[in-house]
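The records we work with from here on pair a chain with its fold. These numbers are not coordinates but entries in a learned vocabulary of local backbone shapes. To see the layout at work, look at the sequence and tokens printed below.

. . .
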Amino acid sequence: MEVARLQKTVNDVSIWAFVRAGHLIKKNEATLVTLFGFAILTFGLHDVVYAGAGRGAGAGYNGERFDETCQAILSLFEGEFGALLAAAAGMGAIIASAMGGFKMAWSLLVVSVGSFILREYKDLFFNGECG
């Protein structure tokens, strides 16, 4: 009998605490989210802000691997796959414009031309770092 009464008391206290915590969170949710975000930015990103070779964001940077990956992507898009992509985009642009989708036709033409000028995009965005 004593165990049942103790279980009921624990159950009632748990429900009361859950409801009170829910009301507290609901009432102060903007403040809590702001504090939580500030805590994440302050303590969670402490090591990431260092761009040195030994710690943070630049810790695992390997220039040769980046160059190899970049060259592989460029060779993929400048070869047969780029020609296939340009041809498919061109045909899609013709079909889209025939059906009245001129905005889609323009976007497909941009994809078609973009596959051929990918190397210039790379030089523009990465400042010649890729090979």
Q: What stands out?
A: Residues 32 and 40 are 12 Å apart (CA to CA). The chain has six helices and no strands. The longest helix spans residues 2-27. The chain has a mean pLDDT of 77.
